[in-house]
Design goal:
The chain folds into three domains: 1-204 and 234-389, no CATH class; 447-528; 578-733, no CATH class. It is 64% helix and 5% strand. The protein contains 35 helices and eight strands. The strands form four sheets. The chain has a two-stranded antiparallel ribbon. β3 and β4 form a beta hairpin. α9 (230-244) packs across α16 and α27 (594-611) packs across α28 (620-642). It comes from Cardamine amara subsp. amara. Residues 51-427 form the DUF4220 domain. The chain crosses the membrane at residues 15-34, 46-68, 88-110, 293-317, 337-356, 492-516. This is DUF4220 domain-containing protein.
Amino acid sequence: MRVIPLKIKNILDKWNIRGLVILSLVFQTLLIFLAPLRKRTSKKVLAAVLWISYLLADWTANYAVAQITKNQGKQPEPGDPPKNKKLLALWAPFLLLHLGGPDTITALALEDNALWQRHLFGLVSQALAGAYAVVQSLENVLWPPILLLFITGTIKYVERTRSLYAASLDKFKDRMLQPPDTGPNYAKLMEEYASKKASNLPTDIVLIDEPDKHERPPRLAIPKNKELTYLETIQYGFKFFNTFKGLVVDLIFSFRERDESRDFFNVLEPGEALGIIEAELGFLYESMYTKTAILHTIVGTVFRFIAFGSLLSSFFVFHHRPLKSVEFHGADVVITYTLFIVGIALDVASMVIFLFSDWTFAVLSELKDDPEEPKSSIDSLLNWFLSFRKPRWKKKKCRGNRSHEVLATGFLSRRWSGTIYGFNFIGYCLKAKVSGFHRKTMHDVSVWESILWMFDWVIRRIQTVLGWIKNANTLLRTAIRRWSKKNPMIRYSVYPLYLVFFSLIPMVFGVLWSYIDRIFSVKAFLDEIRFITSEPLSKNQWEFIFKELKHKSNFAETPEVAKKVSSARGEWALRDTNLAEPDNLMRYIENVDYDQSLLLWHIATELCFQTEEDKEKLSEEIYDDLEFSKIISDYMMYLLIMRPKLMSEVAGIGTIRFRDTLAEADRFFEGMHINNSRNMKLASETVISVDNNIEPMLVKGDRSKSVLFDASILAKELGKLKKDSNEDGKWKVLSKVWVELLSYAASHCEATQHVAQLSRGGELLNFVWLLMAHFGLADQFQINKGDARAKLVVGEPGE
């Protein structure tokens, strides 16, 4: 008995190669147009489509080549055109071209770059497999277009392998290493020194230091009283990218590079600094995940034109061959034309993306030594093109009938997502919907957000129904137990049935669900969809971060001080504020781990926010501090819980603390009968109302890592800071503390994790990391003495 009917099997045998070739072309098309979008958004749907396309593209091409090779060894089917198998051999180099991949994506993740040897082996094996398929069809009347396609496919595959090789971290680091520096010839110098001494000549060795930075001529022209053009923003971004890309592989930088960058960023406006860092991170993304860095070399450009010329030549040779409809199957001719035309169109699209990339604009026009020098016509043209991709700010209404300028660059023009995500602890405990600060109009709400809203509504209804069922089951169980004690008939008939259908079966499904959730993390995925909020980056938030880091950079004159400043996680901010008794707050920073501090200050910030009266009546400055503190508080909790890889260096036992605090909050809210209220204000007031005369640790010990009521004490301490006194108010203190907590996480996150996040839309954390490096607030600036050199001095000092 046939599992697959003969008729269907014949169709599959006839169309399997054709289907695979078309499918391979579809995957290539998806990758070339969708891959650039992943640096602009973190949407799960796009990531899933790219993941599937990236993995299946290689598999499809490899399998199709195997099927073509197998087909060449078969006898032709009755009724097939005489030379149809020779046409199928033409498809083998097409698949090699597909395996070369589009220019817009070479690596799905950083780990793919480390597997460049595998791709090199794949290049050799696939070229041999394709050649074998062609050899089996000899003598092939289509050998000219086949040979030309082999040239194109080989070049494309070599480009991909070379890109992966260049972006692998060890090779990336090797290319950036400077030639070894042995310093002065110590042996020769000491030999001369001994010789002079033996001749009784007054001799000494003097160490000549590098000139002080104020005595050295500036190495970078700094614009004064002049706004940067869009082209200059890209040019400076490219310059600093070439300097600071060493951060990815933990290279150290000289004091010259530190001073040059810090002096330059000190005179920039916050918006200009944001544009430069956007460009830098864009260059870093392209160098790690695309062919851009390879194509923007002379060799890469020449070979790309050779590849495109070979593809066009192959098409014209095939097109001008007579009697195609007689020699080959009509459907196969159509598929071949489709492969040629779509392949040429995709190559043209790649060239357009290549020509209009930031990298092209940066290398076409060099950065001028004098910023005041008049711009050429080429520069003006390039600047006009770049004006379509400039960061755009748009006024949006927020709570309290206020408005802020937020980043609203068009989707296709943006260089990163421009979004700050948030996760709220108390909102998660109550399963409440947390509202954002900036109101979304109907125009701003995307189809995906509408689907998420409907999904959340359905989940809430299901949870409500399950709650009813659980309550009814509890009542039913109590009644049946009571009846079974009085009536033996019920005890031996109804009660066992109840246990099977209402207890045993739900328990089996519960165990099964727990296994599924453990393997696929379904609950975590659903929680991420339901409880993560998003806010656009506002101009005042970025300006506040920029000014705070700029202020701290003024103290970082030496690498030791810079390291101390970058390692501050709130204590520097408390000392920098005008507080009468900072020690009351300092103990929640200095005496606790970083992850514990994050959770403490997050809950305390939320308690202060929910219990703040008359938010609409706050002054503009205080309200901005309130908004900033709340958004960054939720953002840091999002990083700690939802993006643990970004916080792996500082997270500690953050997950354990979060779970213990969550369990205590659930127990507390359930005991107070507000667990189902979804009223965050009521819940916060209830937590604040608990008497805290005795420290929680003295009551509970340190076995539980919960910080719920420690955060309540911290919130009360913050509440004592009156906004109308001479002291800085609680929201000013909180905003400064959250800048330091954010900066600490950014500077202590692994550089590779920052780069990995660029392929998922980017994060504010990545911008803070690079901004700190520009201000000299990084561990990598460890060379302080510069290029000091020894000199042998003969004669009396001063002669």
